[in-house]
Amino acid sequence: MNPIRQHGRVLTASLVGTAVEFYDFYIYATAAALVIGPLFFPTESPTAQTLLAFMSFGLAFFARPVGAVVFGHFGDRIGRKSTLVASLLLMGTSTLLIAFLPTYAMAGWIAPALLCLLRFGQGFGLGGEWGGAALLAVENAPRGWEARFGSAPQLGAPVGFFFANGLFLLLGLGLSDQDFVSWGWRVPFLLSAVLVGVGLWVRLRIGETPSFKAELAKAPPAQVPISRLLRDHTPAVLAGIAGVVACFAVFYLATTFALSFATTKLGYAKQEFLAVQLGANVFFALGILLAGWWADKASVQRVLGTGAALTAVIGVVFGSGLGSGSLPIVFATLAGSLFVMGLAYGPLGAWLPTLFPVAVRYTGISLAFNIGGIIGGALSPFAAAWAGTQGGTAYVGLFLTLAGAMTLAGVKFAPRLRD
Questions:
Q1: Is residue 190 in a domain?
Q2: What UniProt keywords apply to this chain's record, in alphabetical order (predicted)?
């Protein structure tokens, strides 16, 4: 096959697949901020409902490392392609079934129990998704283009976010609040079936990566990749975990927490604030594109370290900017935060694979990415909501400062790979 056409297919498969996965994940994040609490959790306190909704949101992050180990095992033993297809199917099925769940008013405690089960399935599937998509891109990249190819699956994040929030915005504009709460919130979960079909079609048309095929020709795969990984590469796993924290913290504070805070505390209509977030999302994509180009010209370590340092700076002003009540200031806060996130997120697809040899690379980058997601993503909305009630909005961004410092340390102290 023509190399240009082959590269185009690889980049499309990396981008489309992760866009589908992140669409699935983000529609739950948006629903958690808008309707999950009142519909699925019984309490008289709106604050408690919000916290319970965010806890169900965070549950998937704890499923992701489990998925990383399972899918990483097969990704390192049988190949990237088939493992990616399986992860997409699991994620998509779990998302689709959420559309058919009864609410607490219909089924009592069965409703939140089923919701949490499917939420676990979402996280389990995504645990194997990102690592495979990143390797599909980077292990097929021409020399000197690794970071730009590695940014392709990263672009799936703003693309998935655009479709998820855009659809919720259209539903909010076209439906009354009563209809949206009654049935409208289910529509994005139903439409995920179409997107999963597109993702599967694209991924089934690509082949295995050259790096994996060369590794198989050299030596049989590790019997238990996770054991070899933890025995020989634990410092790299720890560095990778720290390197991921900043981007997750920025994203979920600037999206899930910000949406909930703005619609409940600041009094913005959900349609208005979803539009603000969609505009800020453009800066996220620009940050990723700049990071991929810059990392190939300089180094992934330099760009990721810059993103981490700027995350720490953003944390100082994030809470005050979000709580200002001025829409232009709120927009500037979100746009700046997501642009910085692009600098911290864009290089990860190329940086994490440099920490691990091919034989355990799928397991290694998946485990690091998803454990870092627990620290940065699952804890950030919950911690910010708690901090806001304790010390006001000025304290909300302090989590970002800590996350930026952790990622900077991970980049600085990451061991050099000796394979």
A1: yes
A2: Cell membrane, Membrane, Transmembrane, Transmembrane helix, Transport
